[in-house]
Amino acid sequence: MGKKRLISGVVATAEAVRLADVDVITSFPIRPYTGIMSELARMVADGELDAEFIHADGEHAQLSIVYGASAAGARTFTGSSGVGVTYAMEVYSPISGTRLPVHMAIADRTLDPPGDFGSEHTEAESCRDQCWIQGWAATPQEALDLTLLYYRIGEDPRVLLPQYACQDGYFVSHIAGEVEIPDEGQVKEFLPPYKNKHSLNISDPMIIGAQIEPEMGPPLQYQRYIAIQEARKVIAEAYKEFGEIFGRKYSPFVEEYMTDDAEVVIFIQGAHSVTARNVALKLRNHGEKVGVVQLRTLRPFPTEIVRDVLSRFKAVGAVDNSVNYGIAGDGGVLLSEARTALYGLGDKTKTVGFVGGLGGEVITMEEFYKMYAKLKEIAKTGKVERDSYWLPYEL
Amino acid sequence: MLETVKTLRDMPKEEYYVPGHRTCAGCGPALVYRLVAKAAGPNTIFVGPTGCMYVANTSYGCGPWAVPWIHAQITNGGGVASGIEAAYKAMMRKGKYTGERPHAIVMAGDGGSTDIGLQALSGMIYRGHDVLYICYDNESYANTGIQTSPTTPWGAVTTFTPSGPAVPEGKRLWPKDNAQMIAHGHPELKYLATASPAFPVDLFNKVRKGLNAEGPAYLHIQAPCPKGWQFPSNKTIEMAKLALDTGMFQLYELEDGKYKMSYMPKERKPVEEFIKLQGRFKHLKPEHIEKIQNFVDQKVKAIEIEIAALS
Ligand SMILES: Cc1ncc(C[n+]2csc(CCOP(=O)(O)OP(=O)(O)O)c2C)c(N)n1
Ligand code: SF4
Ligand SMILES: [Mg+2]
């Protein structure tokens, strides 16, 4: 059994990186994820963690350095926020295409403009199709756990894919919560050392990333395509074993809250799901049949599970903490994905999108009450007047 | 320690850059690569940013190296090599790797070294990674069909700097001097040199010195490109030699804070002798050539002053 501490998401993440015995870390400053790196720098300076800590010349360099380090056989850690995440965009596909299980923490931040420190999922979601495992932690404890889980999942020889372990800026990254820090023995049992069978090694020379003819590309892309699909199985296994070793049992793909006889639910990921739960609980006390479905894994998207779960309800409100200008339905990624998952089942489950919490504003309880009221109305009338509502202007 | 050699005959027979690529006939960068790989030997990992030495070497999913090689983006050769070096450092310290520490060499084009990948190169040297970074300078973005790069000479025609009635001279900018930029602002730099396939023994030894240096090293190697410069494919070495004899390119090294000239022509030839043999300059008028001559005269003088001061 580990010990309990009151710490923020960034410190919890750093604790997980220390426990994972990472070899190469690359940093570049941008708030709010910076806290992870200052904590790791302290650990290295204090001799608590033996790692190369590299102050990179930008996020593109951060990702380039861990690409090389991971290919050479090291376990790596990097991270960023906001425009830092998008600045490194070029390197995400080479990393997943080379099947390197690089780990990246993202503490969300609004993209410029406006120059805003607030949290939005936009930057991380804009990388969602680069074949990285991706999901959100909603509390500091989840941030620690997600880090360990993702190293384990990404390094599994059946997966070999990089991972974005995301946490909402400030709401998770900088608000302290009670975190149980596992002991090293538990982590050793859960996370075996990283072994790269195809590393850059002079005793077994290998050419990695050769140029190919057009017809030779799709087979490689197809392998990546299958790998992230197959990862679903490994994700489920890893979460199960995680629960057995650490005693914290998560549902790997979607977490349901008060949904047993619910008629309407909020479909959401990340920190704002905590507020959604509070409001659902309050409404339950007034006899309303409402619940919350929290998405834990955005990539690979758990299509079948989401379909099975969401199709049980009369109305689903997908809450997106991101701006996806011009997207189908004018909501966000979650609305779009929920609708895709439900496609073909007829019109039994109505869906509507809510865009909220932009610029790092809280999505207030008041707003969740309004969303539930709208969902109730939709469930009752069977009519969806518009695809999406931007909070607070449109609802 | 890798020993330096006196003559071509002292070089090892083994090749680590072997036949089986599809670079143009007479490709300067490919000749350079062969010498670099020979000098470096088997304990080497190459990093290959996008450019001719990636595309033309690894077509069809294979490559001509007998040592490990990894692709980097055109933007990030310095970063990827930093990661490889750091990984081996950490893994050896932590007992996760017990073999000999491999050398890491970046073989990047001039575009990838002086323009879009300059930050990655500078970052790598600033941070003190023990990597040998080599820029093979064919004086253009060659692989994309010969576009102007920061090292393309003034007056050269490329597909982005054509000559026409409104712009008779073609390229209107003077080239960037990467070796000088790297030499002057990077206190961690342990060794720097320029080299040319016209002097293979010198080139070979500079590679070895760069690898022996404990810390970052930079080589800027001029590598004539028959396609981009537009000369017959059997004239590559002649072009390389003429560049040195006219002062268009100069050979020197910077070691322990001291400069040394590696080759000084007894009498410098006029730049016209270099220019007139290449199609990329064929539109130039005498007044254009005079401009280039002035530029070269000044550059040569500046280097000589610097070398005198620091040698
Ligand atoms: C980010 C990015 N931009 C552009 C390209 C297109 N590109 C491929 S090869 C190349 C030329 C590289 O020039 P240089 O580094 O001088 O190498 P050379 O081809 O001359 O050997 C370019 C621009 C690319 N691969 N990546
Ligand atoms: S274009 Fe130039 S550098 Fe590229 S392969 Fe041909 S000769 Fe070599
Ligand atoms: Mg070039």
How many angstroms does the end-to-end distance of chain B come to?
25 Å
Shape-level CATH architecture of chain B:
3-Layer(aba) Sandwich
Indicate the CATH topology of chain B.
Answer: Rossmann fold
Adjacency order of strands in the biggest sheet of chain A: 3-2-4-5-7-6-13
Please give the number of β-strands of chain A.
16
Helix content of chain B: 25-40%
Domain count of chain A: the total is: 2
Bound molecules: thiamine diphosphate, iron/sulfur cluster, magnesium ion
The count of β-strands of chain B is: 8
The CATH superfamily label of the largest domain in chain A reads Thiamin diphosphate (ThDP)-binding fold, Pyr/PP domains
- Please state the CA-atom Rg of chain A, rounded to the nearest Å: 21 Å
Q: What structural category characterises the helix and strand content of chain B?
A: alpha/beta
Principal-axes geometry of chain B comes out as globular
- Going across the major beta sheet of chain B, what is the strand order? 2-1-3-4-6-5-7-8
Mean model confidence by pLDDT of chain A: 97
CATH fold node name of the largest domain in chain A: Rossmann fold
CATH class of the largest domain in chain A: Alpha Beta
Radius of gyration of chain B: 19 Å
Distance between the termini of chain A: 47 Å
What general outline of chain A do the C-alpha atoms trace? globular
Description:
- The complex is a heterodimer of chains A (395) and B (311).
- Chain A is an alpha/beta fold.
- Chain A contains 13 helices and 16 strands.
- Chain A has 2 domains: 244 residues, Thiamin diphosphate (ThDP)-binding fold, Pyr/PP domains (Rossmann fold); 137 residues, Rossmann fold.
- In chain A, the strands form 3 sheets. Chain A has a 7-stranded mixed beta sheet, sandwiched between helices. Chain A has a 6-stranded mixed beta sheet with strand order 10-12-11-14-15-16, with helices on both faces. A two-stranded antiparallel sheet of chain A has the order 1-8.
- With 311 residues, chain B is an alpha/beta fold.
- Chain B has a single domain, classed as Thiamin diphosphate (ThDP)-binding fold, Pyr/PP domains (Rossmann fold, 3-Layer(aba) Sandwich).
- The radius of gyration of chain B is 19 Å and the shape is globular.
- The model of chain B has no long low-confidence stretch (mean pLDDT 96).
- Classes of the chains: A alpha/beta (395), B alpha/beta (311).
- Bound molecules: thiamine diphosphate, iron/sulfur cluster (SF4) and magnesium ion (MG).
- The site of thiamine diphosphate (TPP) has 18 residues of chain B, from helix 2 and helix 4.
